[in-house]
Amino acid sequence: MSRRRYQSGCLYREKRKAGPDVWAFRHRDGQSNRKEIIGTVEQLPSRKAAMQACELRRANINRNIATPRTMADLIEHYRQKEMSEDSSKSFSTRTAYDVYLRNWIVPAWGEHSLSNVRTVAVEDWLRTLPLANGSRAKIRNLMSTLFNHAMRYEWAEKNPIRLVRQSAKRERTPDVLTAEEIRALLGKLEGPYYVMAFLAAVTGLRVSELLALKWEDVDPSKMERVLTLRCSHRCR
Q1: Does the structure show a pLDDT above 70 at 235?
Q2: What topology is assigned to 71-163 in CATH?
Q3: Over the chain, what is the mean pLDDT?
Q4: Distance in angstroms (rounded) separating the CA atoms of residues 27 and 169
Q5: pLDDT tens figures, 147-161
Q6: What is d(CA 165, CA 140) in angstroms, rounded to the nearest whole number?
Q7: DSSP sequence for the chain
Q8: How far is CA 58 from the centre of its chain?
């Protein structure tokens, strides 16, 4: 068996038609050459700084580890490792993560390399989303989780999302229905919709928990005690 040669790669400065020059790192990937953009000369002002940014990539290349080229690659790896049915995450959590990834994160950041995801850029992007602060904060936290995953596998040296500022504070006070309004609402519903609305009203379940609820999750022997405790707490 022939011994695999150690790769140092080639780092060089590349001009762009628009914007600052970038540092490019080229190495062999099987029988072809692969080029990765390490960062701009504004982010890495010296060749020494660019060389240091290449160290982790060079180590992964020589250990024959398939380093994700883009955020989409990282997300796919995270899905396989952390979002499978065998993972410790609940069905509702996996469902919520999937919605945020498919609808927001992948379309905006999927083609970006990990090194090109910048703190301020993510912060500005979050402000443009037509979502409540709570949903924006969840997207921010999920992106931070993705970078923690990358750091765990030594694909990234830092988590740029940790410094992203995004409040989860409500923008308006929620409209709480009175007992009479709940009774009127239930009078207009039938079948499974009646059951769902009734359970939400008397148990305080979240929408995601309600949608994920199964018959085997319900223990009739404990229902009377749970409902009594909740009703007594709300009547104080």
Answers
A1: no
A2: DNA polymerase; domain 1 (1.10.150)
A3: 82
A4: 46
A5: 999 998 888 888 999
A6: 9
A7: -PPPPP---EEEEE--SSSS-EEEEEEEETTEEEEEEEEETTTS-SHHHHHHHHHHHHHHHHTT----SSHHHHHHHHHHHHSSTTSSS-HHHHHHHHHHIIIIIHHHHTTS-GGG--HHHHHHHHHHSSS-HHHHHHHHHHHHHHHHHHHHTTS-S--GGGG-------SS---PPPHHHHHHHHHT--HHHHHHHHHHHHH---HHHHHH--GGG--HHHHHHHHHHHHHHHT-
A8: 27
Please say whether the dihedral angle defined by the alpha carbons of residues 76, 101, 143 and 123, taken in this order, is positive or negative.
positive
Question: Encoding tokens for residue 233?
Answer: 């707490």
Domain ranges in the chain are: 10-62, 71-163, 179-234
Instruction: Indicate the residue type of 108.
Output: A
